[in-house]
Amino acid sequence: MTYDFDEIIDRKHTNALNTDGFRGYIFGDTEGKMKFPFKDDEFVRMWVADMEFAMCPDVIQAIKDRADKRIIGYSQVFEPDFYEAYNAWNQKMYGWTYPKEEICFSLGIIPALYMLVDLLLGDHDYAIINTPAYGYFQHPIDERHKHAIHNKLKYDAQGNWTIDFDALEKDASNPFAKLLIWCNPQNPTGRVWTEEELRKVAAIVEKHNLWIISDEIHCDLLRQGVKHIPMLRLCQNIKN
After folding, report:
1. What domains are defined for the chain?
2. What does 155-186 look like in DSSP terms, one character per residue?
3. Largest CB tally within 10 Å, which of 144, 164, 230, 237?
4. Contact 233/96 with Cβ under 8 angstroms?
5. Does residue 138 contact residue 129 with C-beta atoms inside 8 Å?
6. Could you report how far apart the first and last alpha carbons of the chain are, in Å?
7. How far lies 137's CA from each of 8, 131, 209, 230, in Å?
């Protein structure tokens, strides 16, 4: 099929954070009283990871077909089709699959982070976060009154971001460190970690008996010549 990348779709009045909720989210203006010297349509809406492209027609049709059944009810995935398609994609792209019994659903990355931080960290425990980092790695720690160790990535004159392994080893050795919140590709730097880097991180996590939350949601968005490697593929001997 062909796709029209020039089509402009009106997102207004669809409860989209991108168009309808940005005033409250960015500026705290929940009542819409803030005035700007330009129209809302003149905003370059790249502050949120929200595509301006239409959804795949097959997905839209599947939603319509389901709605035509008229009863939604308490729905879960009972048929094997999803798991088979998911693992077929993982095998094709990353040479890795997940047992069906180890796959569970979440409403999204953010709800999962809140739940897991609360579950894995005690009142005095620390999570290690590579910084700069996606803000929602820190938010659940603050919300749940937990603690964070910020392991700063190194930035060189050529514009490359790398891991400070000595600092990571030191942070992981903290007796209150219990969790590494990992991200690959890294958000916001875009670094896709190499197998060598991943193995070093996995060894540190295993050595210090840490939990690891590996956010890999952008794993399909890669530059040419770069390959994504699932962290779990290298962490068979640690908690997962």
Report:
1. 1-54 (no CATH), 106-234 (3.40.640.10)
2. E-TTS-EE--HHHHHHHHTSTTEEEEEEESS-
3. 230
4. yes
5. yes
6. 40
7. 33, 10, 20, 19
C-alpha 128/C-alpha 150 separation (Å) is 6
Question: What is the distance between the alpha carbons of residues 197 and 96, in angstroms, rounded to a whole number?
Answer: 19
pTM: 0.86
Task: Compute CA 65 distance to the chain's CA centroid, rounded to the nearest angstrom.
Answer: 29
- What token pair was written down for 203? 């060894």
The residue written with tokens 């070093």 in the block is 200
CB atoms within 10 A of CB 215: 21
| Cβ-contact 112, 95 below 8 angstroms | no
**pLDDT average, residue stretch 208-234:** 93
Q: Is 154 helix (H, G, I), strand (E, B) or coil?
A: strand
Q: What's the chain's average pLDDT?
A: 91
Phi-psi region of 167 (alpha: psi -120 to 50; beta: other; left: phi over 0): alpha
